[in-house]
Amino acid sequence: MGSDTEAEKSIQKEKKKVISLAPIAKPLAGKKLQKRTFKLIQKAAGKKCLKRGVKEVVKSIRRGQKGLVICVIAGNISPIDVITHLPILCEEAGVPYLYVPSKEDLAQAGSTKRPTCCVLVMLKPAKGELSAEDLEKLKTDYEQVADDVKELASDVI
């Protein structure tokens, strides 16, 4: 049997990329919203306005994080029990949330190599303050994503 052609190799790579989503992964972001959300996460990570991981996110939400926040959850988490309480917690606290298909993409956007199941984007950094210009840029991106999330959440309900 000969070697695989380039077309067959690309088909095999696509098959490996198939992601199994959790059944609770709703509202799931579409391609356009994913791109905007990842861009927002990248900017927030650069300004140190990001909490990564279930433990940090839950702690911030329970403490009543000041300012505008948005929770982004990966939809391909296994076991699913790790994140099942997050949507309820977000709804009780009034924090908008959405699911993205891949934890690897979420980690890449958050500037970390380790896959992460959720991030909390804040407009206030953990330490210090943002300049007015940086805050305005982050706020406009945040408002775009938050409006889309609210619209997406109303479609689900």
TrEMBL record:
Listed Gene3D superfamilies: 3.30.1330.30
**One GO term of the biological process aspect:** mRNA splicing, via spliceosome
Q: Where is the Ribosomal protein eL8/eL30/eS12/Gadd45 domain?
A: 38-121
Q: Which UniProt keywords apply?
A: Nucleus, Ribonucleoprotein, Ribosome biogenesis, RNA-binding, rRNA processing
Q: What Pfam families does this protein map onto? A: Ribosomal_L7Ae
Q: What InterPro entries does the entry give? A: eL8/uL1-like (IPR050257), H/ACA_rnp_Nhp2-like (IPR002415), Ribosomal_eL30-like_sf (IPR029064), Ribosomal_eL8/eL30/eS12/Gad45 (IPR004038), Ribosomal_eL8/Nhp2 (IPR018492)
Q: What does this protein do?
A: Required for ribosome biogenesis. Part of a complex which catalyzes pseudouridylation of rRNA. This involves the isomerization of uridine such that the ribose is subsequently attached to C5, instead of the normal N1. Pseudouridine ('psi') residues may serve to stabilize the conformation of rRNAs.
Family, per the entry? Belongs to the eukaryotic ribosomal protein eL8 family.
**What is the recorded name of this protein?**
H/ACA ribonucleoprotein complex subunit 2
